[in-house]
Amino acid sequence: MKNILLFIFISCISLANTFAQLPAAAQRLYDSAWAQDSNIVNFALNHNVQVIATPDGNSFYLQWFPNGSTPSTIPLITTLHGSNGNAFMEFFSWYPRANVHSCGIVALQWYRYRPTPPYDYFPDDTIYSYFDSALTKINYPSGKVLLHGFSRGSARSYAIVFKDIQSGKNYFCTTMSNSGGADSAYPLYAQINAGVYGTNVFAGKRWNMFCGGQDPNPNQSGCPGMSNTQTWLQNLGAAVDIFIQDANLGHNGFQLQSSFTYKDSILNNYLQCFNSTSVSEEQNKTSVSVFPNPSDGKFQVISSKSQILSIEIYNVYGENIYDSDLTLAPSPSGEGWGEVMDLSKQPSGIYFLQIKTKQGVERKKIIISK
Hints:
Blueprint: H1 2-17, H2 24-36, H3 38-46, E1 50-53, E2 60-64, E3 76-80, H4 87-100, E4 104-108, H5 124-137, E5 145-150, H6 152-167, E6 172-178, H7 187-193, E7 206-212, H8 223-235, E8 239-246, H9 260-275, H10 279-282, E9 288-291, E10 298-303, E11 308-314, E12 320-325, E13 337-342, E14 349-357, E15 360-368
Parallel strand pairs: 3-4, 3-5, 5-6, 6-7, 7-8
Antiparallel strand pairs: 1-2, 2-4, 9-10, 10-13, 11-12, 11-14, 14-15
Helix pairs in contact: 2-3, 3-4, 4-9, 5-6
């Protein structure tokens, strides 16, 4: 009798933790995610995640914003989980660093828990429509979103950016493709390669990438496959800002919560894009320049409108290599305030500057080339 009562008690707890306000199809996917890993689902719920049904009721997405923030004005990570995964896994992976950087998260459930292709995952048009709906619902502006895809989500990330361009909405200013290359046999990519949509399909788009040297499928999602995809993107007009290649990590290396430095690197790069403004907006903000850029390691940081208070510099791994408060006098020419920097002892590569002035914070990128 005690065993029966205990079973009923545990069952009631499980039922209390399921989300009972979704349409039937979305509820089925939610329950499947719960059965897959209830701890990760509880982690999200305990951090005040909203579970929102897609407009057609066939799936759901997770939505989270820092306390007190206005969703349409803060940085936003939109993300696609990997093979046989779920949206809660993406929230679990991103939350610690998103919270530090004051970024919101929208994680889409796009695996349908069905065994038979092509019905095991939602198609590209549907995925993009779900993101579009979620962003429209919070009045999020164009050109400000980070799109992340892991594994199969990464393999689809190129298609989602393509759909974004074709829609004319251009939500995504930076894309992080993580352990999933562009398979030339995939119908859309085959059409792109055949020139159906012209050349420079991804002109002006920015990418970051990750691969692990221990990935069990090196030519698909490991470093050889991702290197081929990097070349493919660049040939189509995209710029790849950061390509993290870690020989000691596996397929899910970037996903690990312990990979803080890599996520910080990607978020610092994304925040530069998020904080970029139009010329008319820039006239009302601090004007900071970095010259020369590229440089041999020695360059100047100059503010023409406000005194520089501090400068932080990070490498592509998110490691802080310079951090100093400054008290600078006006430049002799009277054109503003400046600081001479020397990174000549650092290796060639891309570095990110976070510059605090009396008028706010600006982020710049410097390329060191020796």
